[in-house]
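For this section, I looked closely at the sequence of one protein beside the tokens encoding its backbone, which the following lines show:
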Amino acid sequence: MTRTTPPDAARVVAASAAWIWVPEQARTVETDDFLLVRYPDWFFHPLELARFDPAGDLGTALDAALAAARTFDLPDDAELTAWVRLAAPAGLLEAYVDRGGVVDETLDVLALDLTAGPPDLGEAGDGVDVRWVDDVQGLRDLAGVNVEVFGGKPVPEEELEPSLARWREARSAGRGGQVVAYDRGHPVGSGGVSVVDGDVRLWGGGVLEEARGRGVYRAMLAERVAEGLRQGAGLALVKGRVETSGPILQRAGFHVFVREVSCTLPL
């Protein structure tokens, strides 16, 4: 079944604007104008300008954010990832470029009304199965896929058990979790889901290039949407890469609301 009626735009805008994830291992600098997040070193974007909504002059606030970013312990070649999100101030992308920013990624913000039930996602290829991460090996498999698809570094071994405990607690509380897709026993896909305020947020979905075209992404999408429905979610929200997951999501009935752009800025 392909959906034709888009969700309420105001709800999507509000849910997207509220979508900021700060893990407990991260460090932050927050002011009225911005939120900087210093993720652990193994993340593919170790430093991110997660929120930027200046009340005054845009350039002055941006320079203050860049100055604050330089206070973190970072390699000499470190860069800041900064987003142009929904409701971004006019001229923000140009301000990034003026300070040496380079467009890094473009995402579609897509949403699906779940009140009529799950979308029809078809069948995955033979040998493809999706498992919830519930042990250390599953977390290793997920991390390995993430590194190959998105970049970054492998999660240190000493971080695996604490991370697993956090995800187990989240799953048991109905707040989401992470899945790994396997093709004949080999990990080929990864994805996460969070259930927040009656919405299900789908994130981190990626498939190894050699496994694409076998329904792996759709299988992970189906399992994550099903988890949202089990928790009573009425809206599915995802930010998908325009070249890869975006077209799959649109075929599944998700509606595109806007595009977000990220830049990398030198420090």
Notes: The chain has a mean pLDDT of 92.
